[in-house]
Design brief:
Number of strands: 4
CATH architecture of the largest domain: 3 Solenoid
Oligomer: single chain
Shape: elongated
CATH class of the largest domain: Mainly Beta
Length: 362
C-alpha cells in the first residue's frame, strides 16, 4: 500500500485532493441544469434530503471512492512488481497471499461503492414506474366515472323499449368522483370543471320553470311551492361542487364552480362553499342556501326569488341586476346598503339591522 508519510507520494496525494475537491465540484457546478444540486437530488430520488447534507454525502462518497481506487491501483502495482513472490519457489509467500486478499477486498468494496448511486437511481426508476402505473389506474377510474355520467338504460313503456338516462347510475358516478377527489386532492380542478359542465348541459335539456306573469302574490307563491328539482343527479352534482373545497388537501382556488345559466330551482344547497362561483344568469328560485359561503361569487342577472339565504355570506360578491322577490336574507353577511335597499324594494325579507342599513340613505 501507499505510505502517505513517504514524500515521494506527495504528488499522488495532491492529484487525489485535486480530483476530489476541485474536479468533482467543477463537474457538478458545470452541469447544464440551472441548479446542479437539485438536478442531482432529482436523478437520485433524494428530493426530501436537505441540499447541503446531500452535497456533504456526495463529497464523502467521492473521497471514499478515490481512496479505494488509489488503494486498488497500489495493490495491483505491488503484485505487478512481484515484490511478494519468491524467486526460487513456485508458491506464493505469506505476504503475496495477503496482497491478493487485499486486492479482493478492495475490489469488492469499490464495486459496492460504485453500485450505491446506481442502486439509488434504480430505486427511483422503479418508484417512478410505480407512480406512473398508479396514475394510469387512477385515470382509468376517472374515465370510468365520467362515462357513467352519460349512462343510459332501457325501459319498457308499455308498447316498446325506450332509452332513457340512468339517473341512479349517474348519481353513483358523481359520488365516485367525489371519492376520487378525496383520494387525490390534486384532481379537484378537473372534477369541478367536469361537474360544472354536466350541470350546465343538463340545464339546457331541463330548463327552469318560468314564473307566470301578472299573477297575484298567493298564486306565485303556490307556483313556487310546487317547484321540484327536475333531476336528482343535477342537485347531487351541485352539492358535490359545494363540498369540494372542504375536502382535506384540496386547494380552494383550484376548484372552479361555473354554473352560468344553470337550473338550480328548489335545490338544497345549504351550508356549502360556493365562494368564487359563477352564478351569472342562474335560476335559483326557492333554492335553500342558508349558511352557505357565497363570498366572491358572481351574481349578475341571477334570479334569487323566494330563495332562503339566511346567514349566507356575500363578502366581496359581485351583485348586479339580481331578482330578490320574497328572498329571505335575515342575518346574511357582506351585503352593501345599496344591495339591501334594492332587495327590500323587491320584497325581500330583512332583519332589523339590515332594514336600518337599507333605509338609512334613502
Amino acid at each position: 500500500m501507499i505510505n502517505i508519510s513517504d514524500p515521494g507520494h506527495l504528488p499522488v496525494l495532491a492529484l487525489f485532493g485535486l480530483a476530489v475537491f476541485v474536479v468533482f465540484p467543477l463537474i457538478v457546478l458545470s452541469s447544464n441544469e440551472a441548479k446542479p444540486i437539485a438536478y442531482l437530488q432529482s436523478k437520485l430520488g433524494l428530493d426530501a434530503i436537505w441540499a447541503p447534507v446531500l452535497l456533504i454525502g456526495a463529497a464523502l462518497w467521492a473521497i471514499v471512492f478515490g481512496l479505494l481506487v488509489v488503494g486498488l491501483l497500489s495493490v495491483i502495482w505491488e503484485i505487478i512488481q512481484g515484490v511478494h513472490w519468491k524467486s526460487t519457489a513456485s508458491d506464493m509467500s505469506n505476504s503475496g497471499r495477503f496482497a491478493l486478499v487485499r486486492l479482493t477486498a478492495i475490489t469488492a468494496t469499490t464495486g459496492a461503492v460504485i453500485a450505491f448511486p446506481l442502486t439509488l437511481i434504480k430505486v427511483k426508476l422503479t418508484r417512478d414506474a410505480s407512480e406512473t402505473t398508479e396514475k394510469s389506474l387512477f385515470n382509468d377510474e376517472i374515465n370510468a366515472a365520467t362515462e357513467d355520467l352519460h349512462a343510459m338504460r332501457q325501459r319498457w313503456d308499455g308498447t316498446q323499449n325506450i332509452w332513457e338516462d340512468d339517473i341512479t347510475r349517474r348519481n353513483a358516478a358523481i359520488d365516485r368522483l367525489e371519492g376520487l377527489v378525496s383520494e387525490r386532492p390534486d384532481t379537484a380542478a378537473r372534477v369541478s370543471r367536469l361537474l360544472s359542465v354536466y350541470v350546465r348541459e343538463l340545464s339546457r335539456e331541463h330548463p327552469p320553470e318560468v314564473a307566470p306573469d301578472n299573477k297575484p302574490h298567493e298564486e306565485l307563491k303556490a307556483w313556487g311551492l310546487a317547484l321540484t328539482v327536475q333531476r336528482s343527479d343535477m342537485e347531487n352534482a351541485v352539492q358535490t361542487l359545494g363540498r369540494m373545497k372542504s375536502i382535506q388537501g384540496v386547494e380552494p382556488d383550484e376548484v372552479h364552480i361555473d354554473l352560468r345559466k344553470a337550473n338550480l330551482q328548489r335545490m338544497r344547497l345549504a351550508k356549502l362553499d360556493f365562494s368564487g362561483a359563477d352564478f351569472i344568469g342562474a335560476q335559483l328560485q326557492y333554492a335553500m342556501l342558508s349558511r352557505s359561503d357565497l363570498s366572491r361569487a358572481i351574481f349578475v342577472g341571477t334570479d334569487l326569488s323566494w330563495s332562503r339565504l339566511t346567514e349566507a355570506r356575500f363578502t366581496n360578491a359581485v351583485i348586479f341586476e339580481v331578482s330578490w322577490a320574497d328572498a329571505k336574507l335575515q342575518a346574511a353577511q357582506g351585503l352593501s346598503a345599496s344591495v339591501l335597499r334594492e332587495a327590500y324594494e323587491q320584497g325581500a325579507h330583512l332583519d332589523e339591522d339590515q332594514y336600518q342599513m337599507a333605509v338609512a340613505n334613502q
